Amino acid sequence: MEDTEMPHKLDVHKTVQAVAVLLHSDRCDRMSYLRLLKLLYIADRESLAETGRSMTGDRVLAMKHGPVLSEVYNLVDATPAESPAWSEFLRKDGYHLELVRDPGTSELPRYDLRKLREIAARYKDCDEWANTRACTCRRQTGKCGPRWPAAA
């Protein structure tokens, strides 16, 4: 079987900026990393469905509590030495991710900024577990969050 999957390459700088937009949306620059991973996943998948391109360039990883972006998930647990581009701006504190320095938004197209803010507003009153349910496959539950195009 030939591999027809699109090549993936995480854009760390753009992803850090996307994470910062989501963290700013909570007005405290701190968020549960599970919530953040879910919001970023939803924004990335909607971008892919609407524009044909991933916002982050990351692959999806199936996890116990629903899908996440694979390399972003790894970056959350990375040491500063393993990912200085991430650690320069973001720090993990227990189950939260904090913005320690603003990376700006120069790498993000207007569509991405709009989509990230739209997702943050849509799920502002939802905790991470509601966001986890929003990422659950419709075939399993028959209801819930964003609908993705069926895989070919």
In short:
The chain has seven helices and five strands; from the N terminus they run H-E-H-E-E-H-H-E-E-H-H-H. A three-stranded antiparallel beta sheet has the order 1-5-4. A two-stranded antiparallel ribbon has the order 2-3.
Rg calc: 15 Å
Strand and helix order: HEHEEHHEEHHH
* Largest sheet features: 3 strands, antiparallel
Global structural class: mainly alpha
What is the helical fraction, as a range of percent? Answer: 40-55%
In total, the number of domains comes to: 1
Rounded to the nearest angstrom, the distance between the terminal CA atoms is 14 Å
Count of DSSP strands: 5
Averaging pLDDT over every residue, what do you get?
Answer: 82
- The proportion of strand residues reads 5-15%
* Uncertain ranges: 135-152
Number of helices: 7
Overall 3D form: globular
Write up what this structure looks like:
With 152 residues, this protein is mainly α. The model is unreliable at 135-152 (pLDDT under 50). It has helices spanning 12-25, 33-51, 70-77, 84-87, 110-122, 128-134, 138-141, and strands spanning 30-32, 60-61, 68-69, 90-93, 96-99. It has one domain (12-140). It is built from seven helices and five strands; from the N terminus they run H-E-H-E-E-H-H-E-E-H-H-H. The chain is globular. The chain starts with 11 loop residues before the first helix and ends in an 11-residue tail after the last helix. The strands form two sheets. A three-stranded antiparallel β-sheet has the order 1-5-4.
